[in-house]
Design brief:
Elements (H helix, E strand, L loop, with lengths): L9 E7 L8 E7 L6 E10 L2 H8 L11 E9 L11 E4 L9 H5 L24 E3 L2 E3 L11 E5 L3 E3 L15 H12 L7 E5 L8 H16 L4 E5 L3 H8 L5 E3 L8 H8 L6 E4 L4 H9 L7 E3 L19 E6 L3 H9 L5 E5 L3
Parallel strand pairs: 10-11, 10-13, 11-12, 13-14, 15-16
Antiparallel strand pairs: 1-2, 2-6, 3-4, 3-8, 3-16, 4-5, 5-9, 6-7
Helix pairs in contact: 3-4
Subunit structure: Homodimer.
GO molecular function: alcohol dehydrogenase (NAD+) activity; S-(hydroxymethyl)glutathione dehydrogenase [NAD(P)+] activity; zinc ion binding
Keywords: Metal-binding, NAD, Oxidoreductase, Zinc
């Protein structure tokens, strides 16, 4: 049975970015009904990711609604959607999977040829936007745009979750937490007794989300039985914080008299079994690769998105440092800019 709003435009509140670095403005936006293979979601909670902040600060497409880590409830479904129904609880996914293209069927990649990273701020199906303010188009971000009470996504950009899962917390699994866990569990398949080295605990210039990326990998590696997890960073406080997530020892490059790759090889008797680069820097990728023992692989965290939701043992609460109402979304941006938060979860009006 269709809801009373399923074929209608919904007017709701959204945080709209009108220009680079400008405070978000709470606007009444019109959200169009879902088109073919799309679903419209009532957002319950969403969290701020470093990529949202970076895009907001850049000269990106404006006006725009940011946000891509979200949990919510399906309000209505478009033509052709069979895997979702109204009332389903879902997480959004910023790189979707069509499950039919060469990449999706290969079993080796989730960089879908159809629903890959959307950079133009438009829906995949018709290259149009589903948002507007007083008739003016408002563009999407990462095919999600969760800083809105309602949003429309392609059905391949959502994952159904158990109704027992707490929607007010699990938005973190939508991107950040799952990226690290998937890289360590599914892609690297960290084995028991391994030595793992992780580059990027929040070095100068990096965001809080980068240090979170490290923490996520460390926790996943620890849960998989890695015997030694080495964190590399030059910030003592962030190194100390990382230990709570499972890092067994830290190395400060500034205190080393030899290249950090040589240090890692020396203290690990030939190199790490697994090396995770969590910065996204080409020089650091090279260093991370050189820190591995012969014939081992490098796994750069920024190459992977959602790979798994196996995380019943994951302490999600550990990542949430702030819970904020939707009206305080600019406070979340300021906290991240100032490096004073891990993850801010933003709660929509119920």
């Amino acid at each position: 049975m269709s809801s009373s709003t399923s074929h209608q435009v919904i007017t709701c509140k959204a945080a709209v970015a009108w220009g680079a670095g400008e405070p978000l403005v709470m606007e009444e936006v019109q959200v169009s009904p879902p088109q073919q293979m799309e679903i419209r979601i009532k957002v319950v909670s969403t969290s701020l990711c470093r990529s949202d902040l970076s895009a907001w600060e850049s000269h990106a497409i404006f006006p725009r609604i940011f946000g891509h880590e979200a949990s919510g409830i399906v309000e209505s479904v478009g033509l052709g959607v069979t895997e979702f129904k109204e009332g389903d609880h879902v997480l959004t996914v910023f790189i979707g999977e069509c499950m039919a293209c060469r990449q999706c069927t290969s079993g080796k990649s989730n960089i879908c040829q159809v629903l890959g990273l959307e950079r133009r701020g438009l829906m995949h199906s018709d290259q149009k936007t589903r948002f507007s303010v007083k008739g003016k188009p408002v563009y999407h971000y990462c095919a999600v745009s969760s800083f809105s009470e309602y949003t429309v996504v392609h059905s391949g950009c959502a994952v159904k979750v158990s109704p027992l899962a707490p929607l007010e917390k699990i938005c973190l699994l939508s991107c950040g937490v799952a990226a690290g866990l998937g890289a360590a569990w599914n892609v690297a398949d960290v084995s028991k007794g391994s030595t793992v080295v992780i580059f990027g605990l929040g070095t100068v210039g990096l965001s809080i989300v980068s240090s979170l990326a490290l923490s996520r990998v460390a926790q996943a590696a620890r849960l998989r039985g890695a015997s030694r997890i080495i964190g590399v960073d030059n910030n003592p406080q962030k190194c100390e914080n990382a230990k709570a997530f499972g890092v067994t020892e830290v190395v400060d490059p500034n205190s080393c008299k030899e290249p950090i790759a040589q240090v890692i090889k020396r203290i690990t008797d030939g190199g790490a079994d697994f090396s995770f680069e969590c910065v996204g820097d080409t020089d650091m990728i090279t260093t991370a690769l050189q820190s591995c023992c012969d014939l081992q692989a490098l796994y750069s965290l920024y190459l992977y998105s959602i790979l798994s939701f196996l995380a019943l043992e994951i302490q999600i609460d550990d990542y949430i440092t702030h819970n904020l109402p939707f009206d305080d979304i600019n406070k979340a941006f300021n906290l991240m800019k100032e490096g004073k938060c891990l993850r801010c979860v933003i709660h929509m009006p119920r």
